[in-house]
Amino acid sequence: MKYEEYTVDDFIQDEFFIDWVREQSIQANYFWEKWVKTHPHKKDEVALAREIIISLNYERRFKFPEADSNEVLENLLRANNKLEGTSSGKRNRFMLIKRIAAIIVLTTFAAFSFHYFNGSGNNVASLNYTTKSGKGKFSSTFKLEDGSVVKLRGDSYVKIPEKFSNDKREIFLVGEAYFDIAEDKSKPFHIYTGDVTTKVTGTSFGINCDTLLNKVQVMLVSGEVIVNDIYGNSIKLKPNESVVYHNNRIFKENFNYDISLGWTEGKLVFEEAEEKEVMHRLEAWYNVKFILPDGYFFKGKYNGRFKNENLSNVLDGINFTSQKFNYEIREREIIITH
Amino acid sequence: MKTISSGPVFKRKNEINAIEDKHPKKDNCTWSELTDAEVWSAYKHGNKEAFIHIYKTYNELLYNYGMQLCLNHELVKDNIQETFFYLQRKSKDLADVQSIKYYLYKILRRKLIAAVEQERKFQSSDEFGTRKFGIIISPELKLINSQLDEERKNRLRQALNKLPERQREAILLFYYEGFTHDEIAQIMGLKSGKYSRKHIYRGVSTLRDDLVALLILILSTHTHT
């Protein structure tokens, strides 16, 4: 069903609509604000649906008495101390401390970076962060204050301090980005992605951080980077090497520049790609969703290269070399039939 | 950050206090700035601050949810403790958690229902004069409030609360708590997200007539003014 035919009850069940109401997705924001403008006769229906989504609540709310809440917390902390006490062996203890120390570098950095002690000691630096996102476009590029260039994929975002601290340059990344870091040996550049930290002085490299799979890949193009995980592992990369962190393990892996980083130049490259990989990458690239009524897209492997092509040209290209299918693009859905 | 050795947790705590005193308005820029996955990762590695943060963030929500399931203060309180205790014991074995809230709801619901069955402490909802998972469209609502007479509002509220209990629970988990269909299925023990969607679809469909009436009312007040 098309959005034009939606009634209030359809709107309040539509997850993409709800994303907009809850301001959870940039894509939804962008789409619906435009849609409402171009469909003014739907204004009241949209307004009513929005209000219902926002204001639905429990008829009776129960408040946890503070004394009870605190009592439970105290019991839990006491139980936690006991649990820790039973983990036997000096070595275990040592490992735990090491892990805590490692995680603190990562997470407490995240927690306190907004205002922490800088190198000289008692001088408290208060850092404000701005968030930059790809704004739903394929990619967007911007420069940082030190001259470094960040290319951000459309569905990704970074948190950047308004001003870097005196001894480090630090940012957070969710999603995928390509970095061209301006060289400054006295101020190493740290990129935080979940369990993994990447430290560099001046290089070019890409990072893909998949928060759903808890998987991070760092791909080095030039220069040198050091990648640390929360377990204290540290891996140094040479150009054309990549490191993957997945399932709490970290290992080196080869990567293909065109396939993995081609997006930074608008290139979409498939080599011996299975249908799953093709769909996954097209969905991320064009911010769409595949619908497969027949249960499959195409069979076999696909090879192909595109540069700055629109979606239907890419689909035509795949159609041309692989088996035949029909497609229909509706809103953000692509329906594939055979 | 350079001198972390054996007592990192306590050291951090002092630092937080020192910083927060100087920047009292910025205290929301600490743990709450992190994603669930990041907080969880810290907690999993034994960071006590992370645990306290998780508890403080969710204990009240869990209490309210528990009381909707079973109107027994002591039972709900005990099982909130059990839920977090379970989390403490199992945290090392648990996979990486993207949504801590969902995980807690799921454990609490399972524990509470088991406890209710075991102890047969089940209280009928009439005793408390409240139905389980009662729903309202809260009074802050501008559009409806200004243009809707009491009778219409009551009709919508009654229609909502005539829905079966499980539909109401799914509706509240979806709209108020913000869970996804897959999460709701896991929490409520449904086969898949499809069934959560079905519950909500059925619930909302029965409201369709009331919603249409509401809309006509809003439209007519627009044309009158």
TrEMBL record, chain A:
The chain crosses the membrane at residues 100-117. Residues 140-225 form the FecR protein domain. Gene3D superfamilies: 2.60.120.1440, 3.55.50.30. Residues 267-336 form the Protein FecR C-terminal domain. It holds the Pfam family FecR. Keywords: Membrane, Transmembrane, Transmembrane helix. This is FecR family protein. It comes from Splendidivirga corallicola. The lineage of its organism: Bacteria, Pseudomonadati, Bacteroidota, Cytophagia, Cytophagales.
TrEMBL record, chain B:
InterPro entries: RNA_pol_sigma-70-like, RNA_pol_sigma-70_dom, RNA_pol_sigma70_r2, RNA_pol_sigma70_r4_t2, RNA_pol_sigma_r2, RNA_pol_sigma_r3/r4-like, WH-like_DNA-bd_sf. Residues 154-203 form the RNA polymerase sigma factor 70 region 4 type domain. Keywords: Sigma factor, Transcription, Transcription regulation. Residues 54-120 form the RNA polymerase sigma-70 region domain. Signal peptide: none annotated. It comes from the Bacteria. Pfam families: Sigma70_r2 (PF04542), Sigma70_r4_2 (PF08281). CDD domains: Sigma70_r4 (cd06171). PANTHER family: RNA POLYMERASE ECF-TYPE SIGMA FACTO, RNA POLYMERASE SIGMA-70 FACTOR ECF SUBFAMILY. Belongs to the sigma-70 factor family. ECF subfamily. This is Sigma-70 family RNA polymerase sigma factor. It comes from Splendidivirga corallicola.
